[in-house]
TrEMBL record:
UniProt-recorded name of the protein: ABC3 transporter permease protein domain-containing protein
Protein family: Belongs to the ABC-4 integral membrane protein family.
Protein source organism: Candidatus Falkowbacteria bacterium RIFOXYA2_FULL_47_19
Residue span, MacB-like periplasmic core domain: 21-239
GO molecular function: transmembrane transporter activity
Superkingdom, taxonomy of origin: Bacteria
Subcellular location: Cell membrane
This protein's record includes keyword Hydrolase: no
Length: 400
């Protein structure tokens, strides 16, 4: 029997038993759609969270700090030493000190971080509002502040921009085995140009050039960017051998990916339960089709059809049902995701929140799920096809 003949006979079910076939395909589609919806939700949440906390440069960066402040320092000599390690592309130091910040008649103590523009890229810092300052003389009086610090001065985010602020920096000095704090005024003409979304920490970023003018050459930590991912562990080991503490954002991302992987498996499990139920319904449909067409199978065998032809015909039917079930599942899953996402964004807009995209479906997963549904159809139709192929022609002709 030709392949075209097998295909024509296999698709005859859409004409003879249209309602039952469509309902069977719909059952498969619901199971596949549930898997696609839940897994896409898991991927979407993962992408949304990771996109907010990292950039491509941040994934290639290391945080170098020291736990021994007495005997081990991070200074210009350290910068030169680390930069000579093969694989290191750029470095960006950070100086952290305590300051007293004043806005009009309100003042409060918080942490000041002196950093250049490269540090924000290597750290993966994103702004909620405003812009970053540049490493130019005209930007030396610009600062970036956390949203939590704004609350100390009863300032809204819109009110913060353009306000003149002043700083007094506390520089620790050691005198007769006692640490004292010397206060240095920086003036009153600084202004906020950017706001970082941060609810649990009060800090402000100032241009790194200010710390150099104040001759602060002991750094709190330094960002080290490697040229490619393969050198990340090599550079890390080299820096650790020098006695420094090294951490990487990529470690956090890897742990987060592992957690999201587990979440996706759990979510997919719920969809698989629905798919198993629909597969049982498909198995029942193919079994009923076998009983209804027993005499037809006998006639086909009497006219010269082989057991292999009968086998191929039933398998073709189940594969077609599985394929269209997967195709319908993709439509249901994506449509359900769009509707759910629209509802969430509608609610977020009504409550004053930002719009988000909670669903992400990789292209490879779409191809995988179509292949998976087709395989489910193949496996479901395997037993009915085997049983149909073994039917005796004479017994089939007498069957009623």
């Amino acid at each position: 029997m030709l392949i075209t003949d097998i295909f024509r006979l296999a698709t005859r079910m859409f004409r003879t038993n249209r309602s039952r076939t469509i309902l069977t395909i719909l059952g498969i589609s619901v199971g596949i759609g549930a898997i696609l919806f839940l897994v896409s939700l898991g991927y979407g949440l993962q992408e949304m969270i990771l996109r907010q906390i990292t950039t491509s440069e941040a994934l290639l960066s290391l945080d170098v700090s020291t736990g021994d402040l007495e005997n081990l320092k991070i200074n210009k000599d350290t910068i030169g030493d680390i930069s000579s390690i093969p694989g290191v592309e750029k470095l960006s130091p950070l100086v952290s000190v305590q300051v007293q910040m004043g806005v009009e008649d309100i003042s409060s103590e918080l942490t000041a971080n002196f950093a250049d523009s490269n540090y924000f890229r290597l750290d993966g810092t994103t702004l909620k509002k405003g812009s970053f300052y540049k490493d130019e003389p005209g930007d030396v009086k610009k600062v970036i502040i956390s949203s939590s610090a704004l609350q100390l001065f009863n300032l809204s985010e819109d009110e913060a921009f353009g306000r003149l602020i002043r700083f007094s920096i506390f520089l620790p000095e050691k005198e007769e085995d006692k640490i004292i704090r010397e206060s240095v005024e920086l003036g009153q003409d600084f202004r906020i140009v950017g706001i970082i979304e941060e609810e649990g920490s009060n800090y402000v970023y100032l241009p790194f050039a200010i710390s150099e003018k104040m001759e602060i050459f002991d750094y709190s930590k330094v960002k080290v960017k490697v040229d490619r991912k393969e050198n990340l562990d090599i550079v890390r080991s080299a820096v650790i051998d020098k006695g420094y503490i090294v951490s990487a954002l990529s470690d956090v991302i890897e742990q987060a990916n592992q957690v999201f992987g587990i979440v996706q498996i759990v979510l997919a499990s719920f969809g698989i339960v629905a798919l198993i139920v629909s597969a049982i319904g498909m198995f029942n449909t193919m079994t009923i089709a076998l009983l209804e067409r027993t005499q037809e199978i006998g006639i086909m065998k009497a006219l010269g059809a082989t057991s292999l032809d009968i086998w191929n015909m039933f398998l073709a039917e189940s594969i077609i049902i599985g394929f269209f079930g997967g195709l319908g599942g993709i439509i249901i899953g994506m449509a359900g995701g769009e509707v759910f996402n629209y509802g969430v964004n509608l609610l977020a807009g009504a409550l004053g929140g930002e719009k988000i995209d909670m669903f992400f479906t990789p292209y490879w997963f779409v191809l995988l799920i179509i292949s998976f549904s087709t395989i489910v159809g193949l496996l479901t139709g395997f037993y009915p096809a085997r049983r149909a192929a073994r039917i005796n022609a004479l017994e089939a002709l007498r069957y009623k």
